[in-house]
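As noted in the main text, all predictions were made from sequence alone. Below is one such record, for carbonic anhydrase.
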Amino acid sequence: MSLLQEVLTYNQKFVDEKKYEKYCTTKFPDKRLVIVTCMDTRLVELLPRAMNFQNGDVKIIKSVGAIVDHPFGSIMRSILIAIYELQANEVCVVGHYDCGAGNLDADKIIETILQNRIDEKTLQTIKYSGIDLYDWLKGFNSVEDSVCHSVDVICKHPLLPKHIPVHGLVIHPVSGKLELLIDGTNETGDRLAANTERAFM
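Prediction:
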């Protein structure tokens, strides 16, 4: 049986036995918080449990390394939709130690891409389109700096309301211990953006 078939078989049982009932909630986050975090498998259950969040409490947006690298990319759009449409009034960026994004080697990734029957011509077309794959696929040297950078990108967005606090934290992927880098509660807008700039420069 394939993994997909295992999923579908289990899902039918899940629905038939009404196991979904304990997860019923609305689309609006009860704690009015949106979290940007990494897609690391260790955080799937650990992060919400370590932060004492239940199903329905928060909006969770995941990306490699919890990186917000483009002010008009899908991550930032999701944050703004969570605020303007889904009643979130606080943002929290949570990176983690031992993050795979900290060890990304663009050369190795591109080599693997070529080994998977994506030809060199395709890479040249991408380059011609103005995309630097080496820059796009690179990781970061410091998770603390990366979190501060993501907070800065969010804070500087022209559509982010000035009253929305943006926090930056790092979580340990084994113990779940949180380290606070930036408390955006008392500092919003330009003041917080300036502080985060100093933090990662």
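The two ends are 51 Å apart (CA to CA). DSSP finds eight helices and five strands in the chain. These features were considered when defining construct boundaries for the mutagenesis experiments described in Section 2.9.
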